[in-house]
Amino acid sequence: MKIVFDDFCLLCFKCIFFLFLFNAICQLYEPLTNICNVLAVFVWLVIIYNTKNVDKSFCALLFPLSWLYSYAIFSELYFELYPSFTPELMKTTYATGGLVRLILYNSILFIGADIAFKKVKMPIEVISKANRYGIYLLYFVIVSLLITSFVTYGIPLLEGVNRFVFWNKEVENPLFSAARGNTFIVFLLLMLLFNERSKKMIWMVVVLVILTALGGDKFSPFMVFILYALIVIVIRENIKFDKKFCMKAVGGVLLIFFLLLQLIYYHYAEIAKAVNVNDAIVARLVEQGQVWWMVDQIMLCDNAGLIGNAGIIDEIKAGFSLTTDPYYYGMYKIMRMIISQDMVLRYYEFGVEFTEGYPAIGLIYFGYFGLVVFQLFIGYLYGKCAICFYKSVRMGDALGCAMIGKLHSLFIVGLVGGNLWKLFSYKAVLLVTIYYLWCKFRRSLRF
């Protein structure tokens, strides 16, 4: 297979050269660390901006990683520029140059994804009746299960119950939890009907969003909804990005974020019982960068920091086990390294799901040198997943979109959340196998 480096790849290589230079300066001359941190952020913005020059579909498929990585990057920048005491770490942060290394590894992953992604020109197909009715059926099943769960166990948002406690402890029927965990798949499929059944689709989306909010979720699912809506709309070319649409889109996003802010405020005031709600919200946003900051410091001081350890083998074994205890793997493995055991146990008992743990977990397993190779490898896999996503959406294949959307979510869980054991798991293998067989079967049938 011939590897072709396009302009975006070459740009990333140039940026990586400067990031290596900035990292060397941070190590050799500490007073220039923050200057290098700021320059590294500018390099990151240049990379993000230039994804649009590759292909708009690739840009949309890469956007979830771009957005979520930027979340941690700007949090890390705050830690580096302004010394902050973090209660979880029980440490006061300082400028270390870790931000430069974080951006460096994220950039390497983008190179792997770009090498793998090759747009296949194919027409946009109209959604068939079989696919349309299949979407309606899945929507009805998910909505019915969510409503039944609220009738049976109560409504977390209105009763002031923490969502982790409610869905992991109080809800005993696994079907209800599964319905809640797959609302994003239903939303993704509804986006396929964006042009053909716009009014009906909008009302179905509104109902789904309301039920998600009543379930106690305050931010992440809604952000995922927006990201998947963007992916499908761009790939299917449902809208014309003119000035009028852009103004409406900006207004709509601002409205959504305003409503989410109210929901978040309610969560911290009524459920989390925060003494100072504003400080609690700001602290929650800022602390997204603390995992990389702390792990980077540990690995710098560790003699094994350059080569890592063989823990990835145990992580993969956990993914193929039916009785895996998340306490010993993924994000909980990281948290046991950086915060007190009492705090980890408290999170574990609540069933808390952490975010922004990657590439910190990769740094632990592979070290600074090995992580370069792993980033290229995992980025390449993400690029291949993006191709399948692109084809399924263009064809309007509801079942294919559902399977590849689920696989894509495992990439997000692994490449953002840090739970690699969920990405390298029997679920991922099953999804890939079934999707492959479905593609073979689909060639002989046209729905």
UniProtKB/TrEMBL annotation:
Keywords: Membrane, Transmembrane, Transmembrane helix. The chain crosses the membrane at residues 7-25, 31-51, 58-79, 99-117, 137-155, 175-194, 201-216, 222-239, 246-268, 363-383, 395-417, 423-439. Residues 327-431 form the DUF6418 domain. It comes from the Bacteria. This is DUF6418 domain-containing protein.
